[in-house]
Amino acid sequence: MTDEHRRSVELTRIGDARFKATNARGGETFMGTGGEDPDFTPVELLLAAIAGCSALDVEAITRKRADSTGFDVSVEGTKVRDDDGNHLTGLRVSFDVTFPDGPGGDAAREFLPRAIAMSRDRLCTVSRTVQLGADVDYPDAPAVPDAPGA
Residue 88 and residue 119: Cα distance in Å, rounded? Predict the structure, then answer.
């Protein structure tokens, strides 16, 4: 793969249980533990990434027919701790999209379910990665014999 396909983020500690993530273009976002600060937790950022990825896909597809007049996406899941360790279950992405009256809006409304399915099944890199269960390598961590998946 070429460098144009590589994605990366750098993370820097900026305080007690607070970090700043910086992308290659200089964009920044912040995360923490969800205590007193307004920062997103890492789990909330994952949920936002799933929603944002699919929203961008669906919007790009449907706006070819008509611009939406309202576009909201919600995503939720349940954090559990079980024999597999901490993880999310029951991830659910819901769209609430409205289009104007007229032929373009009608066409966009009709195509909306297919656009959502295209994002879910093929286009959204974030949710597809979660669905496919990509390995995450931690080269600095030794193997732990009793850890899930060991």
Answer: 20
Give percent of the chain with pLDDT exceeding 90. Answer: 82
d(CA 125, CA 57): 10
Q: What pLDDT digit, counting tens, does each position of 12-58 carry?
A: 999 999 999 999 999 999 999 977 788 999 999 999 999 999 999 99
Helices (H), 63-102: none
Query: Pick from 29, 53, 54, 50: which is nearest to 41 by CA?
Result: 29
Query: Residue 10: how many CA atoms within 13 Å on its side-chain side?
Result: 8
3 SS3 class: helix
